[in-house]
Amino acid sequence: MTESGKPILYSYFRSSCSWRVRIALALKGIDYETVPINLIKDGGQQFSKDFQALNPMKQVPALKIDGITIHQSLAIIEYLEETRPTPRLLPQDPKKRASVRMISDLIAGGIQPLQNLSVLKQVEEEFQLTWAQNAIISGFNALEQILQSTAGTYCVGDEVTMADLCLVPQVANAERFKVDCTPYPTISSINKRLLVLEAFQVTHPCRQPDTPTELRA
Amino acid sequence: MTESGKPILYSYFRSSCSWRVRIALALKGIDYETVPINLIKDGGQQFSKDFQALNPMKQVPALKIDGITIHQSLAIIEYLEETRPTPRLLPQDPKKRASVRMISDLIAGGIQPLQNLSVLKQVEEEFQLTWAQNAIISGFNALEQILQSTAGTYCVGDEVTMADLCLVPQVANAERFKVDCTPYPTISSINKRLLVLEAFQVTHPCRQPDTPTELRA
């Protein structure tokens, strides 16, 4: 926390995991300060001694709040949900909560980790795009099918949930990696409906304190 | 559910994600039936039409319970926790719950997905072992440091939590991939204390209905 008591989010404008948390903070109306961690500059600021002391996984996001530092985006969102329950990001019904967590874990554990920067660096450069596309396509094939039975206006029913916070940044990654999303009409239409919401707009990678001028919108 | 009303766990004896759920079921005293899904036989039974209808991600575990099917191990465990709260696998204090989820996500999202069978298949055979070792070592370096501030007898304090359900199967994977665990005294000693508990013993990969005779113990 800052001296003013505001939470501090260690974030990178383009990180999809950071974006998830930014949306949660925006939806819940939590005022916070951003400390940008540039994953590329200076060989990666996440590798600095100071940041490693904060998050030994050397990853963003990390959130300093209530005297503790939490990393792992879903753990952060679950903590915000338990301590700042309004508006809720998990439905009341345990079966619907299970759907939300299943979709969130599918994206946060089954797709994103396979196409993130640190993993792609381990793949030969000429295969990186295909590698990332394969991870996303394989996950989206499953996700499209699952959403067909869980979705209403959004991923699970008609309320914005943690699953939606995972969906939008992952679709943005899919677009960056030039994945054709026409085979995923459910994913695409939910994404479209979410992108017009204010909390998704103000937290968008193109509107962050650390967004380079040429990528601003 | 079976006609008798028992939950059905679709599991593979060696899958670390399946093992997590088996421990949760054992700790909570939930009687269930196992349907083995052999990830290697017949080119991988997870790719069968029947199983894909159940889990489009083509992964174990999946749990049929209370009229729904849940996949993603942590989503399953969170559902069990909400519907069968005793004994609890998440502490009452939200800050400690955050630690449990952070450690669980670090393993379930930050280590395991990078060293699982389907990913290793995409890596050239001669690099597979190094790839898996790198994922585990990089995660364990972080985890060892985190546990130094969260651990008591187990990962977070002195009660068995969801984090412990992730730790033990991941250490077993580390051993399978010949990772030297001496640089991780905290991980190793917690693992040792957990392995003697009944719920970890009866659910061990060497004691499952689908464990091949030569691997039984």
Descriptive notes:
Two copies of one chain form a homodimer. Chain A has two domains: 8-86, Glutaredoxin (3-Layer(aba) Sandwich); 94-200, Up-down Bundle (Glutathione S-transferase Yfyf (Class Pi), Chain A, domain 2), CATH 1.20.1050.10. Chain A is built from nine helices and four strands. Chain A is an alpha+beta fold. Chain A has a four-stranded mixed β-sheet with strand order 2-1-3-4, with helices on one face. The mean pLDDT of chain A is 95. In chain A, strand 1, helix 1 and strand 2 form a beta-alpha-beta unit. In chain A, helix 7 crosses helix 8.
Mean pLDDT of chain A: 95
Main sheet specs of chain A: 4 strands, mixed
Residue ranges of chain A: pLDDT <50 for 5 or more in a row? Answer: none
Number of domains of chain A: 2
| Chain oligomer state | homodimer
Query: In total, how many beta strands of chain A?
Result: 4
**Through-space gap between termini of chain A:** 29 Å
CATH topology of the largest domain in chain A: Glutathione S-transferase Yfyf (Class Pi), Chain A, domain 2
CATH uppermost class of the largest domain in chain A? Mainly Alpha
Indicate the percent of residues in helices of chain A.
Answer: 40-55%
Shape of chain A: globular
- Strand order within the widest beta sheet of chain A: 2-1-3-4
CATH architecture of the largest domain in chain A: Up-down Bundle
GO molecular function (chains A, B): glutathione transferase activity; maleylacetoacetate isomerase activity
EC number (chains A, B): 2.5.1.18, 5.2.1.2
Family (chains A, B): Belongs to the GST superfamily. Zeta family.
Organism (chains A, B): Cercocebus atys (Sooty mangabey)
